[in-house]
Amino acid sequence: MFRRFSPQFGVRHAVSVAWLALSLCLPVDIQAQTVAQREEKIKAALIFKLIKFVDWPAEIMPGKLPIQVCALGDTPVGRLLAEIDGKHVRDRTAQFHSVDGLSANDLRGCHVLYVLAGSREIAASCRRPCAEKGC
Hints:
four-stranded mixed β-sheet
């Protein structure tokens, strides 16, 4: 009435079940990672596109000086922004710089600064000194 299974069948069955479980979990993780990467690409592209619509005051950017785009720390969006280095923005060229801190020296020359969401409180503290010193 009952058929006897060999030990090899049990191992194969367990491996098959484990493989199926893993394959069911994998697409969700890969999809989530893809969504995060897509979001980072959109953020970097949006920053680059918005720069095109800014009218820079002549006293801030005389002549055809390049637009300095900076990112605080090593972030995925910052690494994507590094790809805009050398691209044309209206009648100027974009240059990318990664900054490690928020001192006036670190931010000198930055026209655009990308700050990761968790660092916004820190960045808010640099606004007043930066505005007073003319970063």
